[in-house]
Amino acid sequence: MKIVVKLFHEIIIKSRPVRKLITKQLHYNLENLLKAQVPETKVYRRWDHIEIKLPNDLPADTQFNIKEKIACIPGIDFFLVVDEVEFESFDDLVAQGVQRFSDQIIDKTFCVRAKRKGKHSFTSIELERELGHHLLTVGQSNGVRLRSPDIELRLEVDGTKAFFIKEKIAGLGGYPIGQQESVVSLISGGYDSGVASFQMIKRGVKTHFCFFNLGGSAHEIGVKQVAYFLWNKYAASHKVKFISVPFEPVVEEILKSMEPAVMGVALKRMMFRAAESLASELAIETLITGEAIGQVSSQTITNLKLIDSATNAMVLRPLVAMDKQDIIAQAKRIGTEEFAANMPEYCGVISQRPSTKVKAAAIEKAEESFDFSVLDNAINNRVVQSIEKVLDGVDTDTQVACVEIPALSDVVIDIRHPEEQEQNPLHLTNNQIIKIPFYSLSKRFPDLDQSNNYLLFCDKGVMSKVQAHHLNLGGFNNVKVLQLP
């Protein structure tokens, strides 16, 4: 199996030294990720593309996972799954093209598209015409159609090699991770912070996550799921940190010591101070937020300026001019929409009467009565974890029954995200499997046949325990957790 990776178009126009540096980084990222799945992977860096060679006998699900992984690596415009052949002459090349393409055009209209690099006795157009003529002669097609054919037959010629293209798959675009300095993204699990984090990852920025916990362990587990999903899907070539800061005492102190009008801005200022302190420990000087102008009361230009004045760090807001519907649409495309739709928004409940234009004097006066030792304690009590281990050993504060071997009558509910279900299907020989993503379970479970016993399954077991616990509390005692050995 061979794959040809084409560089993102912005990379191609860079100067020779910069282009070489960026391509080298993309080569490293591809090799790092793919060898973890298939150790026999070989990655070769060329001037205008990168070639990946994989064993030809890979199982279909592994091939699918490899293509899914490449499609989510920043820095790639598109990639081609190809058959590579050597040819000795123009006639030999045409003959090999007929051999590979003739079965694909049966009862279809077609056209041939060729690209060529190097010195040859023929042009790309001559190759298209000759190969198309032979296919029309020997094949069982419905004829040639240059505009909107049923199928386009594509090949690329490089020297004495030809690549017959089997698939063309769109890449993520952007720049390879590792090309820019690192940042810390303030993530809440909602639409905005997830999309903002993704935007930075796509631009080649190594993105760490900082979470201010306002809602207990269930909220923290949910946000960890989002952060892990983003990292695992788009940024797993580099290790990053997940920082959790217990911020309930800070909120309590704000509620006790400040007027409602300034509470929202004050909370954001406290978060920025804490994030700056934690980022400095990682030698990072830039913070990322999902704020957009005018979206909520704390996000007016006046209030954003006041929030920024609490820190010396650079603050980047990738979504600053985006509409909410565009943000939600982006969340849907990248796979975080359902996480966000079921994540409560805690920051918005701190005040029912916020001001859209907080005065600097008002916030300074309010902070004079704030006990900053509470903020210091929150920073000191933060927990820093490597993102790849962020769900390992999570204490869910739940006591639910776990089963390793299901009974024949047990019905298993796969509560993983639909993309995880598709990439790594759950196979059980003797049990019925129902697919209900965790974010839909509470609504759909009461409609199931309650005479059955149900086992919840997810990869780590964390969300299964949380969901089973909630269902048990709701009076459903026929729910346990499946933990496969």
From TrEMBL:
Catalytic activity: [ThiS sulfur-carrier protein]-C-terminal Gly-Gly-AMP + S-sulfanyl-L-cysteinyl-[cysteine desulfurase] + AH2 = [ThiS sulfur-carrier protein]-C-terminal-Gly-aminoethanethioate + L-cysteinyl-[cysteine desulfurase] + A + AMP + 2 H(+); [ThiI sulfur-carrier protein]-S-sulfanyl-L-cysteine + a uridine in tRNA + 2 reduced [2Fe-2S]-[ferredoxin] + ATP + H(+) = [ThiI sulfur-carrier protein]-L-cysteine + a 4-thiouridine in tRNA + 2 oxidized [2Fe-2S]-[ferredoxin] + AMP + diphosphate
Family matches, as SUPFAM superfamilies: Adenine nucleotide alpha hydrolases-like (SSF52402), Rhodanese/Cell cycle control phosphatase (SSF52821), THUMP domain-like (SSF143437)
Protein EC: 2.8.1.4
Active site: C458
Compartments where found: Cytoplasm
Keyword annotations of the record: ATP-binding, Cytoplasm, Disulfide bond, Nucleotide-binding, Redox-active center, RNA-binding, Thiamine biosynthesis, Transferase, tRNA-binding
Residues that, per the record, bind ATP: L186, I187, K268, G290, Q299
Pathway assigned in UniProt: Cofactor biosynthesis; thiamine diphosphate biosynthesis
Record GO biological process: thiamine biosynthetic process; thiamine diphosphate biosynthetic process; thiazole biosynthetic process; tRNA 4-thiouridine biosynthesis
Domain Rhodanese: 411-485
Primary location: cytoplasm
Keyword check for Calcium: no
GO cellular component, one term: cytosol
Domain (THUMP): residue spans on this chain: 64-168
UniProt GO MF annotations: ATP binding; CCA tRNA nucleotidyltransferase activity; tRNA binding; tRNA-uracil-4 sulfurtransferase activity
Function: Catalyzes the ATP-dependent transfer of a sulfur to tRNA to produce 4-thiouridine in position 8 of tRNAs, which functions as a near-UV photosensor. Also catalyzes the transfer of sulfur to the sulfur carrier protein ThiS, forming ThiS-thiocarboxylate. This is a step in the synthesis of thiazole, in the thiamine biosynthesis pathway. The sulfur is donated as persulfide by IscS.
Entries under NCBIfam families matching the protein: ThiI_C_thiazole, tRNA uracil 4-sulfurtransferase ThiI
Family stated for the protein in its record: Belongs to the ThiI family.
Name listed for the protein in its UniProt record: tRNA sulfurtransferase
Record organism: Pleionea litopenaei
